[in-house]
Automatic annotation (TrEMBL):
Keyword terms of this UniProt record: Transferase
GO molecular function, one term: acyltransferase activity, transferring groups other than amino-acyl groups
Span of the signal peptide: none
InterPro entries: Acyl_CoA_acyltransferase, GNAT_dom
Domain N-acetyltransferase residue range list: 4-147
SUPFAM superfamilies, A to Z: Acyl-CoA N-acyltransferases (Nat)
Keyword Membrane recorded: no
Keyword Transferase (UniProt): yes
Organism, scientific name: Aphanothece hegewaldii CCALA 016
Pfam entry (one): Acetyltransf_1
Protein name: GNAT family N-acetyltransferase
Cross-referenced CDD domains: NAT_SF (cd04301)
């Protein structure tokens, strides 16, 4: 068998890596045209630009055959998508890619690692358990049709701020996530969305105190896809009114989506965050796809009943 070479993914390979990703996932779930998997959505360009040191390529016979992307949120990290061309399945390539990512996670000094995978695939569970990941609660990715909400969004979006105000907002976001899980930091994600024009970060304030925020991708060419606003990450500051603030943040996200001319609002929520999950059901969100969260070490991290966080680690 030809040697598997694992190395950093290069920018000129992103389009090819994206093709392999769609082919692999579309083939696995049995789409008639596998290349239509997540048509209109994009993962590779902005993730590579945000964290190029976490993107690895698998090469055989001088050709790209697979890749993995790492996402680094301070003390927490996850990887995905992990994909291998179907012609090269069952050759140990996925295992080699995960091994390289685990070394990178160790170099980053993370405390907790996670991933999102198929809940009914023992093959995937077995692979990830070799690296210390264990399945926990389900993560439904939920969506609702956007209603024509007209709220005052003044000072509610990160893009509206000047540079000094953005620095203050980032500090507030970091303080909020640190209160949820020590060292959790979404600064890179917020800045990438702003710099790369992927959408915006919606913020819920009480005077100068940040109560919550949601990093939103908007439309074609982002992780959202056609006519959709996707909350890549959302969080509420832990208080006795967190549930109320969570509803208000979702309302702001819907109003923001309406101003962007979008028709669907989508977000993932781990079912261990029970009140957050039930709130979304009560607000009309319905599950589109379901994955299972696997974590290393096998601890709750910020997947707890008292936490109001939106994400899905895909």
């Amino acid at each position: 068998m030809s040697e598997i070479i694992i190395r950093l993914l290069q920018e000129q390979e992103l389009a090819k890596a994206d093709q392999i990703f769609r082919l692999a996932f579309g083939t696995f779930i049995g789409l008639p045209d596998p290349m239509q998997f997540e048509s209109g959505a994009a993962h590779f360009p902005h993730r590579w630009k945000t964290e190029p040191s976490g993107a690895f390529a698998a090469q055989m016979n001088q050709q790209l055959v697979g890749s993995i992307l790492g996402v680094h949120w301070g003390s927490f990290a996850f990887f995905g998508p992990l994909s291998v061309h179907p012609d090269f399945w069952a050759k140990g390539i996925a295992k080699s890619l995960v091994a390289a990512e685990m070394e990178r996670f160790e170099a980053w000094g993370i405390q907790q690692a996670g991933l999102f995978t198929f809940p009914n695939s023992s093959k995937h569970h077995g692979l990830y358990q070799k690296f210390g990941f264990y399945p926990q609660f389900l993560t439904p990715v939920m969506a609702k049709s956007i209603q024509p909400l007209k709220l005052n969004l003044s000072q509610s979006c990160y893009s509206q701020f000047n540079e000094s105000e953005k620095a203050i907002a980032l500090f507030e976001c970091q303080s909020l996530t640190d209160a949820i899980y020590d060292g959790l930091d979404l600064s890179k994600e917020i800045q990438a969305v702003d710099t790369l024009k992927l959408g915006d970060t919606v913020m819920l304030w009480d005077n100068d105190r940040l109560l919550g925020f949601a990093v939103c991708h908007c439309g074609q060419g982002t992780e959202a896809g056609h006519q959709t606003c996707f909350v890549k990450f959302g969080a509420i500051r832990p208080t006795d009114k967190a549930g109320e603030h969570f509803e208000r943040l979702l309302e702001l996200c819907e109003a923001f989506s309406f101003t962007q001319g979008l028709t669907k609002l989508r977000a993932g929520v781990n079912t261990s965050r029970h009140e957050a999950y039930c709130t979304m059901l009560n607000l009309g969100f319905r599950t589109e796809i379901t994955g299972v969260a696997m974590q290393k070490p096998n601890k709750v991290g910020f997947n707890r009943p008292d936490v109001f966080v939106l994400d899905d680690w895909r």
